[in-house]
Specification:
Layout lengths: L1 H12 L1 H15 L9 H17 L11 H22 L7 H6 L5 H28 L11 H25 L3 H14 L12 H10 L1 H13 L7 H25 L3 H4 L1
Length: 263
């Protein structure tokens, strides 16, 4: 318990550094961009329009009341995971010069990457709201609960990001393997198709073992179906987030003292 409290105090102590790292990541991402932060809204919007044109007729018999909102909700969830963890995977190796010069808690670099991804995700929610406006989506009080969904995914992404960042220090091939994994993960997440289209055996695996399905389903309940998320999906999402966080933190803390020898 005392070790846990010490970790929390250390986290608070370096909160200013983390704020600087997050600010740096956002500035670098949009440096020399004409549209700047507006691109965080327009980029997922353009991708949604293209995918909606391609897939809307293909999956129209899936009984989806508002396909653009369905698609955009899944896209927001997947992009948050995909972009933030791919950024986090290089967080330790990319900070080698700084880590070799002075002592800093190594986790701040990974946490800052995931937090930057969360900020981008919040901008993407603006694109989702625009889609709802132009497609006649229904706005209800349930929308104010979307931070609870993003909080679950943030914890999951944080655990996954710390796991990837730690393992990538020792095995540089992890980043390339992970690219292939995320491609398969995208197609196994009902982002642009209804889960009912999957064979029953595969559907059970996706529903019960794919955390992104739980988060996307919760967000769709709030934005598309105007209801509270199913408690089973909330339970799956929370359990997956906690398990991944425990795994990621355990691997990171167990190996962090060896980072300096490999970066």
């Amino acid at each position: 318990m005392s070790l846990f409290i010490a970790r929390i105090k250390g986290f608070i102590q370096y909160k200013d550094l983390m704020g600087q790292l997050i600010s740096r990541d956002l500035k670098l991402k949009y440096r020399r961009s004409v549209l700047g932060y507006l691109w965080s809204i327009l980029n997922p919007l353009f991708i949604m329009i293209i995918m909606a044109i391609v897939f809307s007729q293909m999956f129209k018999r899936g009984n989806i009341p508002n396909y653009p909102v369905y698609l955009m909700s899944g896209q927001v969830i997947f992009n948050f995971m995909n972009l933030s963890t791919k950024s986090a995977i290089q967080s330790i190796n990319g900070s080698a010069a700084l880590l070799k010069k002075t002592y800093l808690p190594k986790y701040v670099f990974t946490v800052s990457k995931i937090t930057s991804g969360l900020i981008d995700c919040i901008f993407s929610m603006g694109a989702l709201l625009i889609v709802m406006i132009f497609t006649g989506g229904v706005f209800s009080w349930h929308l104010i609960l979307f931070p609870l969904v993003l909080a679950q995914e943030f914890v999951f992404n944080l655990g996954l990001g710390m796991f990837l960042a730690a393992t990538n220090v020792f095995f540089r091939d992890i980043q390339y393997i992970y690219n292939a994994i995320t491609t398969a993960w995208m197609y196994l997440t009902p982002m642009f198709y209804p889960v009912e289209f999957l064979p029953e055996s595969l559907r059970n695996i996706v529903v019960h073992c794919n955390p992104l399905y739980a988060y996307a389903t919760q967000l769709r309940d709030l934005t598309l179906y105007n209801c509270l998320p199913d408690m089973s999906m909330v339970l799956y999402g929370v359990i997956d987030a906690i398990l991944m966080l425990v795994l990621g933190v355990w691997v990171f803390l167990k190996t962090q003292n060896k980072f300096i020898l490999y970066i």
